[in-house]
Amino acid sequence: MAYKSILDWITFGNIMENPWYPFGDLYNLPFDISYKLWEIIGGALAWLINLLLPGNPVSTWLVADGTSVGGALLIFMIVIFLVVFICTLLSLWMERKVLGRLMDRRGTMIGLKGFLQCVADGLKTFLKENTLPKKIDKMTYMWTVALVIGVSVLIACMIPLSGRWFVVNYETGLLIIMAFFALAPFLILVSGWAQNNKYSLIGGMRAAELMISYEIPILIMIMTGCFLAGSFNIGDIVNAQRDIWYIVPMAIGFVTFIFCATAEAERTPFDIAEAEAELVEGWQTEYAGMKWGLIMLAEYFRGYVSCAMIVILFLGGWNIPFVSDNVNNLVPELVFLAKVWLVFFVMILMRGAFARVRTDQIVNIGWKVFMPLSVLNFVIVLLLKAGGIY
Amino acid sequence: MMERNLLDIRAESDELTTDKMWVIMGPQHPFSHGLWTLKVELDGEIVTDAEPIIGYLHRGWEKECENRDYPKIIPMTDRLCYAASMTYSHLYCMTVEKALGIEVPEKAQYLRVVADEICRISSHLMWLAAVGTDLGNLTVFLWSMREREYWMDLFVRLCGARMTTNYPRIGGVRNDITELFDRDVDRCTERFEKALWDIIALVDDSSIFVSRMKGTGVLTREQCVNLGITGPAMRGTGVDFDIRRDDPYEVYDKLDFEVPVLNDGDSYSRYLVRVEELFQSCRLIKQAMQKIRSIGKNAPYRLKVPSKVPAGTAMCRLEDPRGESMMYLVSDGTEKPYRLKVRSPIFVNVSAAKPLVVGSRVADVPVIMAMIDMCLGETDR
User: Fold this and answer.
1) Most exposed residue of A42, A45, B85, B167, measured as fewest CB within 10 angstroms of its CB?
2) What pTM, to 2 d.p., does this model score?
3) Selected residues 189-208 of chain B with any CB under 8 Å from a CB in chain A
């Protein structure tokens, strides 16, 4: 092949024909975008090197199939993270604005209807001094918070936005996300021990106490949804709700799941691990500056994942019911995000209206209300399945 | 109920008991509305012992008064409690008038009642806001503060200041009602009686709010009397006593109002008593304003008083928003008091911290102490 002009290097080939394509026979939109971006970057680089040293092996290596996929994967990670990051910042902005209106105030007002307040806050926490308290277990202190943030970002990125916008396509996708989701309370418990602060210790204990109250009902309800769809794969579950959402057979489960998901994301009324009235800032008391800022951001990542789980399990994912496939496949990502923000809006309303529950009350609610309701939900689904309706 | 059971179980089996730890909540802690400390001993989450520590805000207030002329003490009384400035300056003026042996004009008495009740409403709204934050809900906080702004504006119409009002004078009040106050007071009262239902709907209709308050911080009637608790906290335990009704000062005996009393003795009954007091204060303001208008514009509202107080003692008490406040004046016949003693309701009420919080969970401590409505300016003096 003769490489004369730059356009010979940038070919925009079909990604599905690339033998190194990592997603099998499924089309992946963000990977396609990153692949084309890499073709531009790598192709231009190869053309430049070829101009200086004609006929060198580096240039051809840069446009080879395997190299292109590797470079595209790097850009792919950035694209996925940026989209999730901006969605999370939007939900943060939405919470501040809606909560402000609920409380009869304006909410954030800095730039773009208040959206730039997130940026200002990020810069502020970034510029703060990185302080460490005395007599802490430094390694545990740093690693637990890094893992809490890391796990939260990971699960947020693992949530697919549509049938063509995903990172991995496991057969047990939902279970893996749940497993990572449930990791954080353990890390919070360890972090509470590491901080040499009584408030942090109580906060960490409370995170564990909260977890034993909601984790089992939430798993039963996820199992029910998977049972109905006959698969743990997120795509299969969503496609099974093409016309009738699972909120119809699992109405009880939906209401219960909203509360459990609120507890999972540690939002009011279940934010007992960081109850600022009595525990100052709970398990986050000794984290300052950027660490605290990232913890706060991680919380919104977890809130986003909670809402996404509700949308996937109950609200039909990225599908619009009773429309043709052409309309449905137009912008499924935006449909999904719109549903996520709708659920998040309900969570904001809950935060605006409710007080924080007590630790013994949440355990009571978890075992005496959520647990029987989730089992009842499962029984109903079992009967529907046995009756041949599903 | 839950706490009691857990405590019983722990008492029965020694194996379950764990090491206790003291947690020092304060002086800079979100729950302590002001500078004070509550040391609590925790067994897990359950409070087994508690000790309040006050005195961070002591500024020698009573001693400072001994070096000032009588009229110059009035602005200082405003600084005793910024939420109840009007009642404290009123109390001080009443005490000096008693030592002088004079009676203030009727119009001034009604004006003082109106000012006191506005002060009570704004103080109670501030308390409601604090309860909201202690329960983890900022909507209650901001709605209460929004309502409080209307009453603060009314204070501006009456005397030009929002919080440190400096309005009562020895022998009357500083000025008559202004036209703007006359116009706005009824509008404000009527609006508030409707708007308060928004907050009540948000709190009382929510089972989370109610379950957080019901059954926590229980005091019996006997405990309450022995500890000397006064004010809404006392009336929530079933003691039917209000100085405005039972030992009336100014013109309270000519006005028609009810004293809310509840028998449960928990945080929720204290909450209900205070909310009902808000409505009763509105009633009082309406009646007193009718009387002020019927007295007429040209009636006197201030007497000329001598600058020297005859030697002797005088004591007065009134119903503060937080309880019974009292002032004791010893005069030696000069222009300055020999001694001025203040009995602050919160100084006594906070001593009940231990019986209030022991046995409850640490999550309930802020709510229980919020029902006392702490104000450190008057406590530490």
Assistant:
1) A45
2) 0.87
3) 202, 206, 208
